[in-house]
Design brief:
Blueprint: E1 2-7, H1 20-29, E2 33-38, E3 43-47, H2 53-68, E4 74-78, H3 79-87, H4 96-99, E5 103-108, H5 114-121, E6 129-133, E7 136-140, H6 152-159, E8 163-167, H7 168-177
Helix pairs in contact: 3-7
Length: about 180
């Protein structure tokens, strides 16, 4: 089965440095096949016969901690799940040139509670938009993600979940690479 792993918080501001060449080698040492990395933020596509995503997630997190001596949360999605994420984008077809960095997907380790989602949705100020669907949130930040209050850390705190965020360009490329 093809998986996409999305690591949170590596190679940001010189902290938790992991070279993609080394990360690829680590995944291969775990017995994964056809390992591909994409950009320095910790996106890895790989194949594994293991069907239990929780087991895979724990295996990867423990291997990273053992090798690098720091913890890195990992989100896993299958190729099919990523296809559904793209298909279900509430903002329609996203023009990658115009809005590829203004539309983002935040991947949660668990679906946030309905109460927390309702509370937060009441605070979102247009033109920004936030749509939560299960274990993902779609974020539209026309002024740029760096200026938005809907940051990864903010959503983690408000929803009480672990999360990592990727822009639409990255999500689209990960999907294409995982075909």
């Amino acid at each position: 089965m093809k998986y996409i792993s999305i690591l949170r918080g590596i190679n940001v501001g010189g902290k938790k440095k992991i070279k993609m060449f080394d990360l690829k080698a680590l995944y291969e040492s775990l017995g994964f096949c056809n390992v591909i990395t994409y950009i320095q933020s910790g996106n890895v596509i790989f194949e594994s016969n293991v069907k239990n995503k929780t087991s895979l997630k724990v295996l990867i997190e423990e291997a990273i901690k053992s090798k690098y001596k720091f913890s890195v949360p990992v989100e896993l999605r299958t190729h099919r799940e990523l296809a559904n994420i793209i298909k279900n984008c509430p903002f329609g077809d996203v023009d990658l040139e115009e809005n590829g960095t203004k539309v983002l997907v935040t991947f949660f380790d668990a679906a946030p509670s309905n109460d927390n989602v309702k509370k937060l949705l009441n605070t979102v100020v247009l033109p920004e938009q936030l749509v939560v669907k299960g274990k993902e949130a779609y974020v539209y930040c026309p002024g740029g993600y760096g200026k938005s209050k809907l940051s990864n850390t903010f959503l983690e705190k408000k929803f009480d979940v672990n999360a990592t965020t990727r822009n639409w360009k990255s999500v689209s490329t990960l999907f294409e690479l995982s075909m």
